[in-house]
Amino acid sequence: MIKYVIKILVLVAILGVAAFGAYKLGLFGNSELKIDKTANVVEDVKRIGEFYSTCYYEELVIKDFKSSEFNKSYIGDLFNTDFKDEIVIIANGKVKAGFNLAELDSNDLVVNEDSISITLPKAVVFDVILNPTDYEIYVENGTWSHEKVVKLTEKAKDRILQDALNFGILEKAEKTGMLKLGNLFKSMGFNYVYICIDSITAPF
Length: 204
What we know:
By secondary structure, the chain is an alpha+beta fold. It folds into 2 domains: 1-30; 32-197, no CATH class. The chain has 5 helices and 8 strands; from the N terminus they run H-H-E-H-E-E-E-E-E-H-H-E-E. The protein has helices spanning 2-24, 38-48, 74-79, 146-167, 169-187; strands spanning 50-67, 84-100, 109-112, 115-119, 124-129, 135-140, 192-197, 200-203. The strands form 2 sheets. Strands 1, 2, 5 and 6 form a 4-stranded antiparallel beta sheet that branches. It has a 4-stranded mixed beta sheet with strand order 3-4-7-8, with helices on one face. It is rod-shaped and about 85 Å long.
């Protein structure tokens, strides 16, 4: 009987030592299994694709002149003057800019528990939009071909793009985009968000 009790006590002692060792090693208890979430988060972010952060709007006036057909007429020739035909187009266009998140890879985004660090590409212009409904012919003297009108609207798009760049749309897209992405990652449950562009890191 005494030997049996001794065996029980020895077994309990061994189990106690093993349990203490397992506890110290974190093999059981309330500690959660830690999984590297970086790959999953990268894929989720890449699926966003084009992340628009800034839009520039402008209304501008485009004019053009050409020699009038009236000059070739008998009466026009009598005036000895180069009469001009004029066309005036009022265009309302917009330029969208932001980040192409599809370019990200695992080197650009690191997840560590409740913190995330992301290195963004430079902001780019995605669209310069000037639809047929976004412009009107305000003045049209003489005859202007459809092709000429199309060329003028393309000229308007170029002007709007250049004005947007001069306005600093890319810089504003980066600043606004970083703030929006910071809020996005916060809403995903990350307590610490670090966003980097051009080696400059901003915490959110």
